[in-house]
Amino acid sequence: MSPNYLNICFFIFLVMSSLSFAQEDERGAIIETVEGFFTAIRTADKRLLESILVPNSLNISTSEVDGGTTQLTTLTHENMVSVLTRPGRLAIERAWDETILIQGSIAIFWAPYDFHVDGEFSHCGVDSFQLIKKGDKWLITNASWTREIETCQKSPLGPLD
After folding, report:
1. Judging by beta carbons within 10 Å of its beta carbon (0-12, 13-18, 19+), is residue 122 exposed, middle or buried?
2. pTM surpassing 0.85?
């Protein structure tokens, strides 16, 4: 093999490696944003939640009602912050097996989750967060989730501590 060919192969390897490491860094930052969302819910921290949600975001949940009809619930940014940070309850949301798609400054986080209130199971479902990168920070622009009660699989995270 010619030295030129080896240099080209080495260059391609370096570029691909650096892209892979950059993608992993972004993936970690996205998970950090979502974990911040869950922390804000658990601690009823309005400031934290507002710091990771884009103002005027639209947030939608779906749940099945009698007869298999799907009910949509839409929350404005203000409603979302108010509902998720209301005092007087301990709400814990946990997600696992996340799928993260990233293209430039947009991303999607998709994962099954469970939700507990005051130590009792409330519901499960799938979270779908759409994010944008603003500066060096990932922000949630939209949150959509299913609310399920009867079709929940056991969480691989085990019981709440």
Report:
1. middle
2. no
